[in-house]
């Protein structure tokens, strides 16, 4: 299942490294990533693919100190 | 005030009286600031020893543990203790020196990207880039380590920032706020509790983190609910509690595992359905609905779905549970299980029987003694056969399972609690992993007691080789161990070797009555295994037992 997330994080490189590490380690394959800086924040739009329920990722991301907000937009699975 | 002086000043202001560490080039200004400071530094003989001493200090008190290391190898040596603290939710502050800012990224001498390295083994981490940020970062780091679900926080401080003038800025710590309990979840839990015929409380390490033993015991005493504990929770349920079934899981008691498999409601209190607890997850407590109490929302539903989730501090969520009294028929069943599967100590051989030794040690130690373990067979025997009155009295590397944990953790615990007896129980494999810390015991005249259960093997690995690898004993023979009593004597620590069952009682008396450090080197049967055992892939009621072998 593919999911799109938008994540607002502190605009520090280490914050990006930290949340990408969490996504990888928790078993979510990154398929797309866009990152834009505004004021003190990076707005990250990411698409991940995994068989696991997405809340296993969103709850972990929400715990990170630099993460301000996590929004989930679940994508329809493409017909084969 | 320099950055280094500011660090020491802030630690003192926050009530940190003792720290553990090892100096080196990139942290020299901090060690200079320590000289004559009110914060007492304990020099260990390896940075991993400093990390685990800080873990032992934190786990035996609930206070923040603090450790220092230099850049590069100093910091890499700390990593195992950080990972351990992360897995077991231990409040730890690690301060590492870093090469000067201008040298970062140049592959300078003793330079490692410590911030990058810390990502997978800390709750949060920082590298200080400006001296003016130091005060705020340090205060936030201490707050983070202790708040919510506790954990290790690392602050990497380049040498030039340690030397620079750093202003003190009071940081307004956020009041610790917990999520509000959702009334709909509380109501669902109430219905589940009222309908349950066979409830079991599954108690985890969260009880210690939340300092919620009193709330837990009040709940258990009112409901009379049978209780099982994780390795880390041992001591949370008082040993006098009639329906305490002890540890569950891979080496849990049969009564605990069968009760959980039979229950229709599992009240998970600050635990996380770890794989060593559940065995085959699909078959774990398969007849049960789950009420999950935890401060960390990421743990709820991570491994097993919950029918009701109470996400907040356990001090609030446990009293919110309605108190229905457990039905008598289920309690009878549980008591029958407890009697039928009680531990036996009538060992037929003449050799030292480790479970008996540990049971007797537990009985003879003062009530609030601290026991630290290493990892392996001895660790499971401690969990099975010793009794604890508080989780801060049983320090065992749970999630990470780190050999070498016990001796330095005991040092930290003894420094934190000088009024209590501290005993480390180790194996002949584990003790060698941080044996250098005998020097720290001697240097500080710490009365740490040491019990080495020596089967001249990496016993737990050997047991698995015997059971699951067709007896191919690859690299588990340690029959060339040193003479441990002689080794301890080199560090000025007295002790004795025992080889027969009839020597156990006197040796324990000697150890318990000694005023300084003391070592018992107990030679046990090299074929003795830990039972019961849930084999890989099996359900928890499909235990292998000694009788069946």
UniProtKB/TrEMBL annotation, chain A:
Domain of life where this protein originates: Bacteria
Gene3D superfamilies recorded: 3.30.70.260
Pfam families, alphabetized: ACT_5
InterPro entries documented for this protein: ACT-like_dom_sf (IPR045865)
NCBIfam families according to UniProt: PRK11152.1
Protein name, entry field: Acetolactate synthase 2 small subunit
Organism: Pseudoalteromonas aurantia
Automatic annotation (TrEMBL), chain B:
Catalytic function, reaction form: 2 pyruvate + H(+) = (2S)-2-acetolactate + CO2
GO molecular function: acetolactate synthase activity
Requisite cofactors: Mg(2+); thiamine diphosphate
Key words, A-Z: Amino-acid biosynthesis, Branched-chain amino acid biosynthesis, Magnesium, Metal-binding, Thiamine pyrophosphate, Transferase
Domain Thiamine pyrophosphate enzyme central, chain residue ranges per copy: 188-321
UniProt remark on cofactor binding: Binds 1 Mg(2+) ion per subunit.
Enzyme Commission number(s) of this protein: 2.2.1.6
Domain of life the protein comes from: Bacteria
Matches recorded under InterPro entries: Acetolactate_synth_lsu, AHAS_TPP, DHS-like_NAD/FAD-binding_dom, THDP-binding, Thiamin_PyroP_enz_cen_dom, Thiamin_PyroP_enz_TPP-bd_dom, TPP-bd_CS, TPP_enz
Pathway: Amino-acid biosynthesis; L-isoleucine biosynthesis; L-isoleucine from 2-oxobutanoate: step 1/4; Amino-acid biosynthesis; L-valine biosynthesis; L-valine from pyruvate: step 1/4
One Pfam family recorded for the sequence: TPP_enzyme_M
Similarity comment text for this entry: Belongs to the TPP enzyme family.
PANTHER family recorded: ACETOLACTATE SYNTHASE, THIAMINE PYROPHOSPHATE ENZYMES
Name of the protein in its database record: Acetolactate synthase
Organism name: Pseudoalteromonas aurantia
